[in-house]
Amino acid sequence: GAVVSQHPSWVICKSGTSVKIECRSLDFQATTMFWYRQFPKQSLMLMATSNEGSKATYEQGVEKDKFLINHASLTLSTLTVTSAHPEDSSFYICSAFLADSLGDTQYFGPGTRLTVL
Amino acid sequence: QQQVKQSPQSLIVQKGGISIINCAYENTAFDYFPWYQQFPGKGPALLIAIRPDVSEKKEGRFTISFNKSAKQFSLHIMDSQPGDSATYFCAAPDGGSTLGRLYFGRGTQLTVWP
């Protein structure tokens, strides 16, 4: 149980275009999802907290107009990178929060590799 | 300020050896301590987690040891295997208004030589 999927797993786009990444909790409902960015050999950098039915909360330094987050249902959150540039190239990972027997646990998706040419 | 401090940054262990990764925290309100395992190009996967009401939790070859007074917890991998080669992250919950938010350590890259 507690499976999170992401789509696409990788994407290559031209500079200036927008890219949408989907994050789905497959077997549970998640009122809260998180979006991370990860650079090679570095830790997870939290970009924003996505709450179903309300506006996302962005971390300091993250441009909310560039990284649009929508959490339209209890199983789906989307991250849209608008007007992407090469510096946006990175590994984007989502997670979904589930309060289960283990504790307040985040279950991660497999990640999306974005390359902007 | 880093909420969770993890060491070492990298670790090389021979097959069959014991791998030990340490984490320290400051916020005594933290009440849940998960460890994640991440392979290259993949998302992190929950490996094992502990609550502070116990001092140790074991699942197969993986053990978390927790020292509440020292505000430290560690991951021990017994009989380390090449397949354990990955990056390991410790984490602790926000403890604030953002339910489910975790603070992550910087990660430990483990390499197990055959």
Keywords:
A: 117 residues; mainly beta; seven-stranded mixed β-sheet; B: 114 residues; six-stranded mixed β-sheet
Describe this structure in words.
The complex is a heterodimer of chains A (117) and B (114). Chain A has 117 residues and is mostly beta strands. Chain A is 0% helix and 56% strand. Chain A has strands spanning 4-7, 10-13, 19-25, 32-38, 44-51, 57-58, 67-73, 76-81, 90-99, 104-108, 112-116. In chain A, strands 2, 4, 5, 6, 9, 10 and 11 form a seven-stranded mixed beta sheet that branches. Chain A is globular and about 45 Å long. The termini of chain A are far apart. With 114 residues, chain B is mostly beta strands. Chain B is built from no helices and eleven strands. In chain B, the strands form two sheets. In chain B, strands 2, 4, 5, 9, 10 and 11 form a six-stranded mixed beta sheet that branches. Chain B has a five-stranded antiparallel beta sheet with strand order 1-3-8-7-6, with no helix packed on it. Chain B is globular, with a radius of gyration of 14 Å. Chain B starts with a strand and ends with a strand. The chains are: A mainly beta (117), B mainly beta (114). The A-B interface holds A 4, 6, 32, 34, 41-44, 46, 49, 57, 91, 93, 95, 97, 99, 102-111, 113 and B 31-32, 34, 36, 41-46, 49, 51, 89, 93, 98-102, 104-107, 109.
